[in-house]
Specification:
The chain is mostly helical and 221 residues long. Helices cover 54% and strands 0% of the residues. The chain has one domain. The chain contains nine helices and no strands. It starts with 12 loop residues before the first helix and ends in a 7-residue tail after the last helix. It holds the Pfam family DUF247.
């Protein structure tokens, strides 16, 4: 980026150096906060299909894409499933909502691109998508027997979701997932687990992607 100088008059070396320092401070602050970037347009042109989600929008960068809206109802259903695991569902939802609103500004600053959605819209995206991801990751390591579920009873869905969740532009900040998991899956919740901790989002994510990498698709918690 190029600095702005007065249209007329000389700029002293001291003033010029001060502008350099200010700009370095801005760059440093952004480099710390920004962690979710867009794929450069020129790179997308090489193979656009490889860099765009196929069935689900995660985060604000592809929110509203007409081709991805068919999954919206499933995201809300998975959020409901996650909340229903708790005996005090309304309390859990209230705690999740308050947590998301407290994190909204920090989450917004995590995106290199300016987010077009207002506070309430972005908070909704973070809440629904975050709960969807957590429940998806947990379902992937459980013996799932709900025949009405579209995702786990279609052989092509999980590989496609792995592709979409791994994309650079299909992300929400990791700290959002950590906060939601801590609220929705309390440590006193008893589940039979043998392969992965249900209380660590990193472990759940690694398991979800390693099933594909290791070929152990039949392994269950």
């Amino acid at each position: 980026m190029r600095l702005s100088y007065p249209l007329s008059g000389d700029v002293s070396i001291a003033k010029w150096t001060h502008l350099i320092k200010e700009t370095l401070g801005i760059v440093r602050a952004k480099s710390i906060d920004n962690c979710i970037y867009e794929v450069p347009k020129e790179l997308q042109k090489v193979n656009e299909d490889a860099y765009r989600p196929h069935i689900v929008s995660i985060g604000p960068l592809h929110e509203g894409d007409h081709d991805l809206q068919a999954m919206d109802e499933h995201k809300w259903r998975y959020m409901l499933h996650l909340l229903q695991r708790n005996p005090e569902q309304e309390k859990t939802l209230n705690e999740c909502s308050m947590a998301i609103f407290s994190l909204e500004a920090k989450a917004r600053g995590s995106y290199a691109k300016t987010i077009k959605f207002n506070t309430y819209e972005l908070a909704e995206i973070l809440l629904v998508d975050g709960c969807f991801i957590i429940e998806l990751l947990r379902f992937s390591g459980m013996h799932f027997e709900d025949d009405s579920d579209l995702i786990f009873h279609n052989d092509w869905m999980i590989p496609t979701l792995r592709h979409d969740l791994g994309l650079l532009e299909s992300q929400i900040p990791f700290f959002v997932l950590e906060h939601l998991l801590e609220i929705c899956v309390p440590h006193n919740l008893e589940l039979h687990t043998t392969q992965v901790s249900i209380h660590k989002i990193a472990d759940l994510a690694l398991y979800f992607f390693q099933v594909k990498m290791s070929g152990e698709a039949s392994r269950r918690i």
